[in-house]
Amino acid sequence: MTKAQPDGIIGRNRLPMVRGFTGLPQALSDHLKPCWQGARDDRDARLREPGVKSRKIEMFRKTIHTAVAAAAVLSFTVAAGAQGRPDARAMSCEQVQLMILDRGAVVLTTGQHTYDRYVASTFFCSHPYVAQPDSIATRDGWCPVLRCGYRLFEDRW
């Protein structure tokens, strides 16, 4: 004495059947769907909403504007770092010595086509080199400075 079940209902759960596929309720069928398929369906539904495409275009424009602004800032920073090296011939001896002490190591122009690196101490020279006394021409005469060079005599004892 069973009552006839309406079409699309299974047993006591009374869950609707998936049309064209018998045996699984609709809720279970949705659960077993691949996750990418559900995400694609959601995305397609959102794209059909009014205003979504214009929001995406606006986000793209903001991204482009941000990239252009970052490139402009980077180009100005590089240009500021590419300034010429100081000319020792146009500076006083005191200015040259203070610059070397302040920065630790400085590349100075010493002539029309010459330049060299001058240091405050041996700590600013790489391993085989040591700070050696040298003099360069400045606005007010010759100026004593230190330059990295090979050790001339090595103590072996």
List the defining traits of the structure above:
about 160 residues
Mean pLDDT: 75
First-to-last CA distance = 115 Å
Going by helix content, strand content and strand pairing, the class is alpha+beta
Number of helices: 4
Largest sheet: 4 strands, antiparallel
Uncertain runs with pLDDT below 50, 5 residues or more? none
Q: How large is the radius of gyration?
A: 39 Å
Strand content: 15-25%
Shape: elongated
- Write down the secondary-structure element order: HHHHEEEE
Query: Can you count the beta strands?
Result: 4
Helix content: 25-40%
Strand order of the largest sheet: 1-2-4-3
Please, how many domains? 2
Write the layout of secondary structure elements.
Elements: H1 26-32, H2 35-48, H3 52-81, H4 93-103, E1 105-109, E2 115-119, E3 129-138, E4 141-150
Antiparallel strand pairs: 1-2, 2-4, 3-4
Structure description:
By secondary structure, this protein is an alpha+beta fold. The chain has 2 domains: 26-79; 88-150, no CATH class. It has 4 helices and 4 strands; from the N terminus they run ααααββββ. The protein has a 4-stranded antiparallel sheet with strand order 1-2-4-3, with helices on one face. The model has no long low-confidence stretch (mean pLDDT 75).
In short:
By secondary structure, the chain is of the alpha+beta class. It contains four helices and four strands; from the N terminus they run ααααββββ.
